[in-house]
Amino acid sequence: MLFEHLLADLTAVFFPARDAADAMPVMDGPWTPNRALDDAPLLGLPLPGCDDLAVGGDCVFVSAGAVIWCLRGVDFATRSLYATLAPGVGALLAHRDSLYAAVTGLGVVRLVAAGREIARLETVAGKPLRCVTALAALPDGRLVIADGSAHHPTAQWTHDLMEQRASGRLVLAAADLSHATVLAEGLAWPAGLLAQEDGEHLLFSESWRHRLQRVNLQGVIEPVLRNLPGYPGRLASDGKQGAWLAVFAARTQLVELVLRERKFRTEMMATVDPRYWIAPSLQSSGHYLEPLQGGALKKLGVIKPWAPPRSYGLVAHLARDGECTASLHSRAGGLHHGITAVGPLGERLVAVSHGSGRVLDLGLASSREGRP
Amino acid sequence: MKTGVRYHGALLHGGLVRRLYHRWSLKLILSELLAKRWMEPAIPFVLMCGLLAYFAAVTPHYATWANAGTLGRQFADMGFVVIAMGLVVISGGIDLSVGAVFAFANFVALALFQILHVPVPVVIVGTLLAGGLVGAINGVLVGYLKSRPFLTTLATLIILRALVDLLSQRYSVQLAMGTHDAWLWAYLGRGLACGGIPSNLMLLLSVAVIGHFLLSRSRPGWHLTALGSSRKAARHAGIAVERTLCMTYVTSGVLSATGGLFYAARLESSGSDTGVGWEVNALTAVVLGGVSLAGGRGTVARALLGAVIVFVLVNGLVRLGVPGAVTSAALGALLLVAVGSDAKWAKNRLKTIQKIYLNPTLVELRPAPSTAPDSGTPYAENDRLRDSRELGLNQVEGPEDVILDREDRLYTGTRDGLILRFSGPNFARREVFARIGGRPLGMAFDRADNLLVCVGGMGLYGVTPQGEVYKLTDATNRSWFKLNDDARLRLADDLDIAPDGKVYFSEATIRYEMHSWHLDGMEGRANGRLICYDPATRRTRTVIKDICFPNGVCTAHDGKSVLFASTWLCSIFRYWIDGPRKGQVDTLIDDLPGYPDNINRASDGSYWLAMVGIRSPTFDLAMRNPGFRLRMVKQLPPDEWMLPGINNGCVVKFTEQGKVVESLWDPGGHKHATLTSMREHKGKLYLGGLENNRIGCIDLPDADPHWSGCDSYWGKRETPHVV
After folding, report:
1. Phi and psi, residue A318, nearest 5°
2. In this predicted model, what pLDDT tens digit does every residue of B501-536 receive, in sequence order?
3. Rounded distance, CA B527 to CA B200, Å?
4. Whether B636 and A261 lie within 8 Å, measured CB to CB
5. Do B647 and A296 touch (CB under 8 A)?
């Protein structure tokens, strides 16, 4: 648009409060930063590239790269290969006697004992299922699949964000992966799913619009929680009708600015290596080619934890009404960034930090839930 | 050649128009203009000139000497009243009774002269006393009894107006019949002072000039202004608030009475409409001229400027035959506009300047050689600085530059304004060598072993071997056609000394201060300069203007040229100070992959260069998009702004011909983030960083183990200088 900046200026002058509701919130109240994620011990050994986890039987399944690992034993230190699915595995769901896994760029497969594939879903409503970000099971046994984008595979999520796409959808399928139908469309990167106990509703996160929504099985959507301080990802039940939410990156003012700056963004995407974009990230190396922000300047040998984060670690607990009650953080300069999954393991709470390639043991889940 | 320094790099893409648009920014001039105090009455001044021109064009015989005389005489009466009002408004109050005092004085003067036939000097004194008395009533009420100026003077206005009406009716016959005359009386009313200027106008101008000096250059004037700015602060400062306020109203009354006296002598009539509505006219004039209604801001000249506007407008409209009601309405509308813009302007002026001061410009850099570890370029990333020894860890705060003397002692300047000295085995002994203040940056030893230091915020200073601080210079020649005063040194950055003793030093920017140097980076303009101080003549002069953040300075090994780094342009230039090309500038390197800082000599005849940061692709992109940077600066808090990649340590070495031969890295700046300087000394390289808490030291196995900077500059000395 020719006068987009002028129009934006005029809007700001004449309607100063128009975007107040969407202004980036500060992390405050239950979102107050802490070091809980950085202080958390590891569950098992480091697993570079780990992405999602699922608990089935005595085994904790963790997807990492093209492999699904099974962790078991004392402290889950014993690691065995469960299945290999090239080119890569993302979301996992242990449901009844099967393990469902999202295969990058291909779709969803159903695995049974010892990793044997017995079903596969690759196309829904004539469109390939290339970007499965999350899986969930309904109480009636059916499966819900979140397809993040029609344009990019999961690994290129920053492209999808920077292009401001909204081509994700929710898919309903039978347990044997047949009868797949589209439940909702036009979503901006749906990345987390949680079936609610009434069997009628489904909570899902929409990352690029920083919100949680609820959809019923007829496809009617209603808002639950909006304007989150980060990009919400996968969801897990806390067993008390509340939820655990993995926030895989924090919003920053600079990224929000770049998202408003169409010309700059287009040029950046065309000319700069995606590793060095001004975009959220699951991990930051501190490499000198990455964009640096003023607050992150190393002074007297220290990076301040309040520095604008390129990557961030954040897990939030949501009460039954969807309100956040507590959160666990790993701030700038911390290690356990890019939390892509969180969930209960018996009494314990575990989280997957994609950025550091570690599964974290967050201790007693009930002690992390905040207000009763 | 100088254009090379300015335009270098900005040649890659984008049309000429785009480049010129970013080079000459109208906003830049505007922001510097607005920052000037004398710009405040600019709009009323233009308005006044416009009105005068308009009426001169539409009214016959307007721009004639005779008309000017008539108008001047009529204007002077009102001028006194406006100055009266102006003084009170500057003191933070308001005097609505000026019109009534004017009318009252008119009556008193006429009565004294025509009815009582007293001598003219007595008439003058009596009239002024009457005005002063009314002013004193106002003053006591407002100053001592703390009543509100608005209501108090409104009450005075009503009472006085009624009194004047009563008296005028009662004595109208006697006044009308009065034929008493005296030459002084006539002179007051119709006389011409030196060169044909009406007597009253002459006195008005004298009062204005004296008033201006009193207000701006005298203690009572300052007290008055201080009172208007903040009564509480004025009281805390020990100003006699009550007395000053009271005297302000008395002065106001006397000035209004002076106007009334001249009016009486000129017209000799005591109509009941004398001075009616003048308080509104005076208020309009005062605010229009740029005297703030909030108090504390304004001058006599501004009040008179507004008076001319109001007078010319009213007079002109009357002459054009516009009905009086319309004129009043026009005046009221003008008052509304003036009051509205006064409030907005007073509140937002500084904010506006702040908002438009920073003007990002187009900076297009040449593609840089790769720094990838396997790239094979001399810049290839390595970790040769990772194993550096740390000296003075947590004992220094921001050692921007480091230097060693003939006795192997290590000196550095810190952000708290100290020069620290480390000595002894392993530099374990730390002592404060000198306390300069400011922000000590670049350093060099002169022939007599004095340590010369560029101090950000102060200028060029020296420290004797005994630790005594002395000033070399803190100002250079002011350049013509620059709105900002660029004589004073704001950010002297680095220096070096030529064989003839002349000190060449860089001033990084003249638009920002030490604490806001990164704003200059956001702007990317050629705001810096290279300056030369000659100790022989003690003269300072600018040798090259308009350099884009000149940083490190180093005299070449042969002493015939000075190398300097331009940080935002990622370039090194050579300025010839001797030989056939004296005075010219060459580009030595213009494709550095990072931002150059200090330059120093190396033992093998080449030069060390500290790169404070590495160019990141997104920052380069931002530098090519001034609009993006501008919006970033406006919409985001400073901690969220982009910076070049300065969480990194890198030192490179280049030859006399500008060929880079090797680089030493601390990728990610684990030990040496923001590395700004390095100094070779006896086979070792010492490292300093602007924001670091340590000094680094590494061994240089291939270097001459006996070479030192002092020897290189000033020759070997057999008997070391003894302190």
Report:
1. -115, 135
2. 999 999 999 989 888 888 899 999 989 999 999 999
3. 52
4. no
5. yes
Per-residue pLDDT tens digits for B146-175: 999 999 999 999 999 999 999 988 888 888
Least Cα distance to B306 among B36, B51, B30 occurs for B51
Phi, psi (5° rounding) for residue B219? -60, -50
- Contact state of B648 with A288 under an 8 Å Cβ cutoff: yes
Helix, strand, coil fractions of chain B, as percent rounded to 5: 45, 20, 35
- Angle, helices B183-190 vs B120-139, to 10°: value is 60
Can you tell me which residue has the tokens 């009457």?
B130
pLDDT in tens, B585-642: 999 999 999 999 999 999 999 999 999 999 999 999 999 999 999 999 888 988 999 9
**B-chain residues near A266 (CB < 8 A):** none
Alpha helices per DSSP H over chain A? 4-14, 36-39, 157-162, 253-260, 262-271
Please check whether residue B700 is in contact with residue B384, taking contact to mean a CB–CB distance below 8 angstroms. no
> Is the CB of residue B100 less than 8 Å from the CB of residue B283?
no
**Chain-centroid distance, C-alpha B197:** 39
Quick one: which of B31, B40, B38, B8 has its CA closest to B512?
B31
Around Cβ B217, how many Cβ atoms within 10 Å? 9
The answer to whether B648 faces chain A, any CB pair under 8 Å, is: yes
pLDDT tens digits, one per residue of A31-73: 999 999 999 999 888 999 999 999 988 889 999 999 999 998 8
Contact A225, A212 (CB under 8 A): yes
B328 in Cβ contact with B318 (< 8 Å): no
Cα–Cα distance, B253 to B132 (Å, whole number): 5
pLDDT for A10: 83
A281 min Cα distance to partner chain B (Å): 15
Q: How far is CA A32 from CA A38, A230, A329, A338, B638, in A?
A: 15, 13, 9, 18, 22
What DSSP string describes B127-176? HHHHHHHHHHHHHIIIIIS---HHHHHHHHHHHHHHHHHHHHHHHHHHHH
ipTM of the complex: 0.92
Sign of torsion, CA A299 A301 A306 A310?
Answer: positive
Asked if B640 has any chain A CB less than 8 Å from its own CB, the reply is: yes
Rounded to an integer, the average pLDDT of A173-182 is 93
End-to-end CA distance of chain A: 50
Q: Which residue has the tokens 């081509």?
A: A167
Asked if B539 and B334 touch (Cβ cutoff 8 Å), the reply is no
CB contacts, 8 Å: B382 with chain A:
none
pTM: 0.82
In order, the DSSP letters of A215-270 are EETT--EEEEE---SEEEEEEEE-SSS-EEEEEEEE--HHHHHHHH-HHHHHHHHH
Question: Quick one: average pLDDT of B50-76?
Answer: 88
Percent of chain B exceeding pLDDT 90 equals 66
Q: Are B5 and B547 in contact (CB under 8 A)?
A: yes
Instruction: Please state whether the peptide bond connecting residue B550 to the residue before it is cis, i.e. omega within 30 degrees of 0.
Output: no
* pLDDT in the model for residue B10: 41
How much is the pLDDT for A31?
Answer: 95
Of residues A264, A287, A300, nearest to B668 (C-beta) = A287
Q: Which residues contact B309 (CB under 8 A, 6 or more apart)?
A: B44, B47, B48, B51, B285, B288, B289
B669 — contact with chain A (CB < 8 Å)? yes
Contacts of A252 in chain B (CB under 8 A): 640
Q: Which one of B570, B620, B639, B693 makes the best mutation probe of the A interface by having the most chain A beta carbons within 10 Å?
A: B639
